[in-house]
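Let us work through a complete example step by step.
Step 1: write down the sequence.
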Amino acid sequence: MSSGVRPLVIKTTSGLERPEATNQAFTVAAAAVAAGADVSLWLTGESAWFALPGRAADLDLPHATPLADLLEVILDGGAVTVCTQCAARRDITEDDVIPGIRVAGAAVFVEETLAPQAQALVY
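Step 2: predict the structure and record it as tokens.
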């Protein structure tokens, strides 16, 4: 995160059980990347599954950009992180996730959210 624009940290806890909330988090993250913001998207709780190849395609929401397309935009211009504990509870390892997605814990999340001028959103 280094474009000089105010950092935006987005945390989503939702998965397939709350498709609108999930899609909103990814849509805002992708829109922010497109606007040139420094974006960090955190996948926690049930959203951790979207770090696995092909899983974003499982979310089908009418009148919404496909989650896989949004994830691609975010990965191209921002950072995507899976919560360490959330991954472990789901037996997801660093070897399992899409290339470019990292696994990190609360200390990294806190560091990002406390960065000067950072804005955090939770979905």
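Step 3: interpret the result. Helices lie at 19-34, 67-77, 84-89, 106-113.
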